[in-house]
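Can't paste images in this forum, so I'm doing it all in text. The chain is below; anyone willing to post the predicted structure tokens underneath?
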Amino acid sequence: MTIFFRSFVLVWLLALVGAVGCSSDDAKASCGVVVDATGFADVAKAKELISQNLPEFLGGCGWVAYAAITGASVGSSCQHRPLTLVTGHDNPSIEEKIRTQLLTKAGERAHDLLGCRDGSKGSDVLGGLQVIADRLGAAPAGTGVHRVAVFSDLMNNKGVDFKSCDFADPEARSALVERLKGGGLIPDLGGATVTVYGFNLLEERRPECVPPLRELWKAIFTEAGTGDLQIV
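Text version of the structure:
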């Protein structure tokens, strides 16, 4: 076992302890995990972001669905079935043991998506969000609010190419959002709490893109109907 892998396992298990600390009564949210398997996945910090942030996110989830961002996210072969994280067992200790196993599996699935390749080119971030919106729409009844974690730098280049980062002008942003809306490229994330992890990695290679692209995505997520939004 390599030093890196031992470190990864240790970080994940320590974080998992905090996640399991949530009782099954608290873990009621229907959750979505979106993982960018394009160039973002080649950045070393991408794995760290999942290891450090996913366990806490999953701690409040009773059910979780997945979506991969690839060059053709809708219909991609990179996918996993949703996973129920609460069994409702009468014995609390057995429930906790089972939940620990399920949370571990949930994390493994996210890391698996990060390494998945379906042969497509480019980065279809909007398509990945559409996939998770559709899957959340099929969440079981009674699992509470919707929460979404997105592990990506949000550099979409399919459908509309964001690499120019020419979105500083509010009117230009509004026009692009309307164009995306008219093309059916903005998903319905009505009321979902969304947290994006990894956007700040853009500062290392394209710092000039960070402010305008952040504002563009705020406008897109607002149009998508999200509730609380954090882009970090």
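The longest helix spans residues 92-114. Confidence is low (pLDDT under 50) at residues 1-14, 20-25.
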